[in-house]
Amino acid sequence: MATVQKSIDVAVPVTTAYNQWTQFESFPRFMGGVESVTQLDDTHVHWQVSIGGVEREFDAEITEQHPDERVAWRSVDGVTHAGVVTFHRLSPDSTRVTLQLDWQPEGFVEKAGALLQVDDVQVQRDLDRFKALIESEGVEEGGWRGDVERPRDATGR
């Protein structure tokens, strides 16, 4: 399993950063290789990506979401993919956005990319583009303020 964790500070309030991130269909504006994201319902999205010449489609489920704090997801078919983005208020007008992605590289190109940390560079570029987008706009395109509780495990935790 490959993992990347990167952070970036953005000069907008935490609510603005969070609200923009919940506009999943805008991801192609700042995420390299993301062709489209379609919001199916409050907790399901469909992804179409093309990375390194490899095209994939998969569905993901939002497994936890708390306004101005975090959004977590996992794939439900196709590729093995999961992640979490957290939002940390640094001041009234600045926020730290931390993104962690976990996935199972498939095939030579993806395994080589993970080994050479090409994915780390791509995630940082995506965060840099998110920063440029949200700071240039100054306001979010919208936002979903619903709450999704983390599923409990077999022990009830």
Account of the protein in words:
The model has no long low-confidence stretch (mean pLDDT 88). This protein has one domain (2-137): Alpha-D-Glucose-1,6-Bisphosphate, Chain A, domain 4 (2-Layer Sandwich), CATH 3.30.530.20. It starts with a strand and ends in a 20-residue tail after the last helix. It has helices at residues 14-21, 107-115, 118-137; strands at 2-10, 34-41, 44-51, 54-66, 70-75, 81-91, 94-103. It is an alpha+beta fold and 157 residues long. The protein is globular and about 45 Å long. The protein is 24% helix and 41% strand. It contains 3 helices and 7 strands.
Short structural description:
The protein is of the alpha+beta class and 157 residues long. 24% of the residues lie in helices and 41% in strands.
How does the SSE layout of this entry go?
Layout: E1 2-10, H1 14-21, E2 34-41, E3 44-51, E4 54-66, E5 70-75, E6 81-91, E7 94-103, H2 107-115, H3 118-137
Antiparallel strand pairs: 1-7, 2-3, 3-4, 4-5, 5-6, 6-7
Structural class: alpha+beta
Q: What's the total count of β strands?
A: 7
Report the helical percentage.
10-25%
Main β-sheet description:
7 strands, antiparallel
Going by CATH, the homologous superfamily would be START domain
Strand numbers in spatial order across the main sheet: 1-7-6-5-4-3-2
Mean pLDDT: 88
Low-confidence stretches: none
Proportion in β-strands: 35-45%
**Overall body shape:** globular
CATH architecture: 2-Layer Sandwich
CATH fold label: Alpha-D-Glucose-1,6-Bisphosphate, Chain A, domain 4
